[in-house]
Specification:
The chain is an alpha/beta fold. The protein folds into 2 domains: 194 residues, no CATH class; 316 residues, Alkaline Phosphatase, subunit A (3-Layer(aba) Sandwich), CATH 3.40.720. The protein is 48% helix and 11% strand. The structure holds (2R)-2,3-dihydroxypropyl phosphate and manganese (II) ion. The site of manganese (II) ion has 6 residues, from helix 14. (2R)-2,3-dihydroxypropyl phosphate binds next to helix 14.
């Protein structure tokens, strides 16, 4: 009877460990070497359990439960993080745990039965271990210990054989990117190796030379916006696929659509976001500075005290006054510090607004625009020179929950889904952007300004199966990473007759050179990884990063999605037909992408711009 309890107990643990691992593998979307990944995680976990069962202490059941608890919570945390960021939690990312409280709503949205199931067996295991501990005869008989010694030996030998086999078939890198123990082992090794990285890059410095003071060519738009104020609106989670779409006759973004068609607007429809771990704040870094954001931690955290020479500094050197506006905590994403380094003279943040009726998090866009306009009037009065106002909206932030009085239609089958909520939120923000532009007109701040609008990053993830299916109902085609990362860029120069849709493939890196040329300003001192989107190009690519493995490539007609570990496990497709295509032709391009991202990383890591400015 006692033996059978223990026997059943071990079986119970074994079954739970295997089931939990399979569920976890499913949640983190492991596609390759699934059998190996499950076997390794389960056998290593059971190996640790058998070691604990062999301990010569009567606290071993408490230790066992503690281990099982930590293991379960760890898998759960990773499954939640994966749902948001499409990757496992790296050791670097643990340093950002402090921001979790601010995105609680988005986290709650990720809580579903499958993810919670990773924790559901904890009470059962606890009850079972308490039962064993109470029953003294079990420990006297020591049956469990003898048996678990045998099991420990078997699992250790199996794990070693598995590792040898996986190495011989060349899949070790792939397994180490998906299997939790291997992932953290290699992560830990890299974490301690990191300090040497800068030296390895030093040889690459000559490659930066060609990016310095990159000459922009004169084109039809050069200097059309000379001496005007610049108002840039970075819109939270605005994707391009919602433009010019109707759902049951309901136009999602009527104001942006109208602006795109306006004779004074250039619309870039093949424009992509570039964000790393710093999300919104990385979109700001890339856009303002024409640099790839860091892939390790938010750029604003790691490099807030670097020297920069991007849009705010360049405009200041040209007489502009530069202010940033955002209706949330001043120090969120370390903006207060980073903005000062990037050249903003003032940051109007949440504490500068008077409001207490929140939607989601932060000041609602309507109030944000209304009160920002008052500050912009003040900014305009500072001197005779033009100003630069950089506004970052917030209300259309995931999980996009709008109050009933701010929903303007019934979305039918999409109602209540994340995508449906997204449509409501974007519609609200579109309405507020439209209202803001009208108010600029009535305040006399419109005619002499340039207004640029773009999205910071996606709202609907291509790696969320249910929601990409929902988004696909709007786009009428398979929703993949290209649609997810495609954000609109509109540059509106009132009074000019320039209406055009530019389909040159570009990214947030390109904003700086593009807008500078339109403003007739040259970057005399800095460095730009981007290009003027209004120029002529033949061989043109975007090298995305962040929510997709770096080394991926987007061209006008194709997309290459690099696998997180092995080139051979990657995929590519035609962006028009959505059909799979051969990956081989992306081999060199993918290397070029990595090189370019590394080079930009070097600029940040070595504070290269500081040296450039002091030469
Ligand atoms: C907070 C806002 C949102 O200030 O920028 O950040 P996100 O979660 O989108 O990166
Ligand atoms: Mn954002």
């Amino acid at each position: 009877m006692v033996y059978s309890l223990i026997f059943r107990g071990e079986i119970l643990l074994e079954i739970f460990v295997f089931l939990k691992t399979i569920l976890f593998m499913n949640l983190i979307k492991v596609e390759n070497n699934r059998l190996f990944v499950v076997l390794l995680t389960s056998l290593i976990t059971l190996g640790i359990i058998y070691i604990i069962l062999n301990l010569k202490t009567n606290k071993k059941y408490s230790i066992l439960f503690l281990f099982y608890f930590v293991f379960s919570v760890f898998l759960f945390a990773n499954a939640m993080y994966f749902g948001y960021f499409n990757k496992l939690i790296s050791i670097d990312a643990f340093t950002q745990a402090g921001q979790v409280g601010d995105v609680l709503d988005s986290i709650k949205e990720l809580l579903n039965f499958k993810r919670l199931a990773l924790l559901l067996d904890l009470p059962i295991i606890a009850a079972y271990l308490i039962a064993i501990r109470k029953n003294k005869t079990i420990s006297k008989l020591n049956i469990s210990e003898r048996k678990s010694k045998r099991l420990l030996l078997t699992s250790t030998v199996t794990v070693i054989i598995l590792f040898i086999y996986i190495t011989t078939i060349g899949q070790i890198k792939a397994v180490a990117s998906d299997e939790i123990y291997s992932f953290y082992t290699s992560n830990l090794i890299n974490y301690f190796k990191k300090d040497n990285e800068v030296e390895n890059f030093l040889t690459e410095e000559d490659k930066l030379e060609e990016l310095i003071h990159r000459e922009t060519q004169t084109n039809e738009f050069t200097a059309i916006g000379e001496n005007r104020n610049l108002i840039v609106i970075q819109v939270e989670a605005l994707q391009n696929f919602v433009l010019f779409r109707e759902i049951n006759g309901f136009e999602i973004t009527p104001n942006l659509n109208k602006l795109v068609k306006d004779s004074a607007t250039i619309y870039y429809d093949n424009y992509f976001h570039l964000v790393g771990k710093g999300n919104t704040s990385d979109a700001e870094v890339a856009t303002l500075n024409s640099l790839y954001p860091s892939l390790e931690e938010p750029t604003n955290t790691l490099y807030y005290d670097n020297s920069y020479y991007g849009l705010p500094w360049i405009l200041r050197d040209n007489g502009y006054t530069t202010w940033a506006f955002h209706g949330y905590k001043r120090d969120f994403w370390n903006r207060d510090k980073a903005y000062a380094s990037e050249g903003f003279q003032k940051f109007i943040a949440q504490d500068d607004f008077v409001f207490d009726n929140y939607i989601g998090f932060g000041i609602p866009d309507r109030e944000f625009f209304k009160q920002s306009l008052e500050y912009i009037k003040e900014l305009d009065q500072i001197d005779e020179n033009p100003f630069f106002a950089f506004l970052i909206t917030l209300t259309s932030h995931t999980p996009f929950k709008m109050p009933p009085n701010e929903k303007y239609t019934d979305l039918g089958e999409l109602e209540g889904t994340l995508t449906g909520n997204y449509i409501h939120a974007i519609h609200y923000t579109d309405m507020e952007v439209g209202r803001f532009i009208e108010n600029l007109k009535s305040e006399g701040l419109y005619e002499n300004s340039i207004i640029a609008i773009y999205g910071d990053h996606f709202g609907i993830a291509a790696y969320d199966e249910t929601e990409s299916e929902n988004a696909g109902k709007i786009t009428n085609e398979r929703y993949d990473y290209d649609t997810m990362m495609n954000i609109p860029l509109l540059i509106h120069v009132p009074g000019e007759n320039i209406n055009k849709t530019v389909s040159t493939v570009g990214s947030q890196l390109d904003f700086l050179p593009t807008i500078l040329n339109i403003m007739g300003i040259k970057n005399e001192k800095g460095i730009m990884f981007g290009k003027d989107l209004n120029g002529e190009f033949t061989d043109n690519y975007v090298f995305p990063m962040g929510y997709i493995k770096e080394g991926s490539v987007i061209s006008e007609e194709e997309m290459f999605v690099r696998d997180k570990a092995l080139f051979e496990n990657s995929r590519a497709f035609n962006r028009i037909t959505r059909e799979e295509i051969d990956i081989e032709k992306f081999r060199d391009l993918s290397e070029r992408a990595l090189e370019e991202i590394n080079l930009s990383n070097y600029v940040l890591k070595s504070n290269y711009i500081d040296r450039l400015l002091n030469e």
